[in-house]
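Many introductory courses stop at the sequence. We go one step further.
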Amino acid sequence: MKKLLTLVLAVALVLTLSCAAFAEGYSGELKVWVAEAAVDFTNEQVEAFKAANPEYADLTVNVEPVGEGDAAGKVITDVESAADIFGFAQDQLARMVAAGALIDVEPGNAEIVAAENDAGAVAAVTLGDTMYAYPMTSDNGYFLYYDKSVVTDPTDLDAILADCEAAGKSFYMEINSGWYQTAFFFGAGCTLTYDVDDEGNINQCNVDYASDAGLAALKSMIKLAKSPAFVNGSSISAATNVGAIVDGTWDATAAQELFGENYAAAKLPTVDGYQLSGFGGFKMLGVKPQEDEAKLTACDALAAYLTSGEVQLARYEALGWGPSNLEAQQSEAVQSDIALSALAEQLAFTIPQGQYPGDYWSLATGLGDKILAKDYDDADDAALMDALTEFQDTCISYAG
């Protein structure tokens, strides 16, 4: 009986201590890296988090300016001294996981993330069956800006080109870019992705450009380049006499200024029977592994809060960053944003940009340059397939 009583008291003591630890939260320091433009906003949201969660009232959070493009390199170089929570772009996920710089998202939070964010963003933070980061934005990709007094049907590329030609206007798209070029290949049904090993090294290329789908994509690009309306480019700020252009949200202000009352945007059009696709881009918050469980719990709680729907919407209103949260995307403010609405529609047809070797981008530029130089204008299917086979074999050669 005494043994039983002792056991009961011991269990009660453990539960009491656990509850006390939970109630006390964590009062140490956390370091957070975000883009410079988001530092002030993040500091404000940290204070709101502490006010909403009294157990973290004494938490000290140091927010430092480190951009999403630089964070991965800094974290991988020295995980120990890196921030506890950091923003980064989706193409760095595999490297970060391989370097042991990310801890998987707490299971309860992972369920919420999967339910509340768009499918592209959820896929972007997931490697295999494991979620490693919290989606923060769904706003990096390309779509169509157009002058609605010129383009009458933005859903079909041939129709767009016909309208531009008739009006003496230009259609811009950068087909000698490995980023924009995938719109055709992925849209036609091709695959080009790379796998990485546990050390972050590329060890396999998954590619089928040398196929009927790849041939269809290449022919579509050749046909596009032959249009008198076509101009190779993707920056509306550097474009002239524009009827339509494939560009991104970063140029929304320039597009509005150029087109004025005729400003419009839409998902990419279809061409030759398929929907143009491409890469989608996402920003996310990662949490690095922690030895202190209480600190890890605080990191998870803060990362979840900073990527919640409410904060994503506030971030849009303060910085113009497009939310990945489904409810935030349906807000009146976001829905009335012409560029973001077009991108959201387009992202349903894209894949998240993963890790690609640097040489891929040069190779893709070379393929596009040959199209622009009209090297393939008179080529038959066999010659085009030879070009695609060479491209595919070269992509494979970059893997391990």
